[in-house]
Every structure is written in structure tokens, then in C-alpha cells.
Write a structure and sequence with these properties.
Length: about 190
């Protein structure tokens, strides 16, 4: 296995501890990733209680099936994000389909558009949260504070060229939110599961 193919030690160790049934490992995992899981679920579902339920379901799945995560396939964080997306989309489809069956407004096409939109939005949030801090800081200055690249460079204490590079890379990462087949993307985040 090449060096960069070796999964992070923490991910491997966590998977092994979960597989041994260590309750403390689940607690550590929850402490580290519950806000990510809940945030992604809430973004897809738009409902606090439903996001709470999906969060609980994600960690229950991890506890009951720790071997479904393979550290060689990517970071634990990405796997949890993909699992969250899959379970949240399943819940959204189930609740919306039931509402349609009861004669609620909309069509199945509306439901699929809603699922696609929620999935892309959740993926964009995940990308922003996961990108390196220098890229995120440049994007925040440029897009939320309406700074041009020169002002961004000055605020960050970098050259104009470096500010442009950070903005370009950040935007390239965000552009992948619509692309399910992006290399390195968490599986299941880019497409409607």
C-alpha cells in the first residue's frame, strides 16, 4: 500500500474499537462528528426533530455495523457524511411520498427536485466545512464580506496571486457540489441516494 493510501491512524483505530464493541469509542465518535451529522441531516430535511432522528439512526448504524466502514475507502468523516445523506434522503422520500399518497400538494417530480436540491446543498455545506481553512477564509471574505481579491489578499496578509489562487481552488471545490462523480468526493453526497 502506498503511503497516501494508508488511512489515517485515528480512523483505523476508531473502526477497530467500534468493532470490539467499545462504548467509549462510540461516545468519542459522537462527540467529534455529531454536529456534522446533525447539520447535514437538517440541511436535507429542514426539520430539527427529523434531523435528531437521523443523527440517532446514523450512530446506531455505526454501533450495530462497525465493519461497514472500511478505512481504506476514505476518511471516516466522509463515510459518516455519505451515510447521513443516504439516511436523510430515505427519510425525506418516505415522508414526502406518504404526504403525496394522502393527497398532499406536489408531484413525484417535485419530490425528486427537492431531494436533488437538498443533496446538493448538503454537499456544498460539507465541502465548505471540509476545505482547508485558508481556502474557506478567502471565500468568506470574498463572498460574505464582498471583498475583491486585492482586499482579500490584504486582509489575509498574502499576495494578490495567492488570494486569487485560494479563491479559484475554493470555487473549484464548490463547483463539485453538483457532480456526483467527482474524484475524492464522499460517496453518496453528490447524488440522490
Amino acid at each position: 500500500m502506498r503511503r497516501r493510501d494508508v488511512p489515517p491512524r485515528w480512523d483505523r483505530t476508531m473502526q477497530q474499537r467500534l468493532a470490539r464493541g467499545e462504548a467509549a469509542a462510540l461516545g468519542e465518535l459522537y462527540d467529534r462528528f455529531a454536529s456534522l451529522v446533525h447539520g447535514l441531516a437538517h440541511r436535507v430535511l429542514g426539520d430539527e426533530r427529523a434531523a435528531d432522528t437521523v443523527t440517532r439512526d446514523v450512530f446506531a448504524h455505526v454501533w450495530q455495523h462497525p465493519d461497514t466502514y472500511d478505512p481504506r475507502q476514505g476518511p471516516l468523516r466522509s463515510w459518516l457524511a455519505a451515510l447521513t445523506n443516504r439516511l436523510a434522503v430515505q427519510r425525506l422520500r418516505t415522508t414526502e411520498t406518504a404526504a403525496l399518497a394522502r393527497g398532499g400538494p406536489g408531484t413525484t417530480e417535485d419530490l425528486e427536485r427537492k431531494v436533488r436540491h437538498a443533496t446538493v446543498t448538503a454537499r456544498a455545506d460539507y465541502i465548505v466545512q471540509s476545505m482547508p481553512a485558508p481556502l474557506r477564509a478567502a471565500l468568506e471574505l470574498a463572498y460574505f464580506q464582498r471583498r475583491d481579491y486585492r482586499q482579500t489578499a490584504a486582509d489575509l496578509g498574502v499576495t494578490d496571486e495567492e488570494a486569487r489562487r485560494r479563491l479559484r481552488l475554493g470555487l473549484q471545490l464548490l463547483a463539485t457540489a453538483h457532480d456526483a462523480g467527482t474524484p475524492g468526493a464522499p460517496p453518496g453526497i453528490g447524488g440522490a441516494a
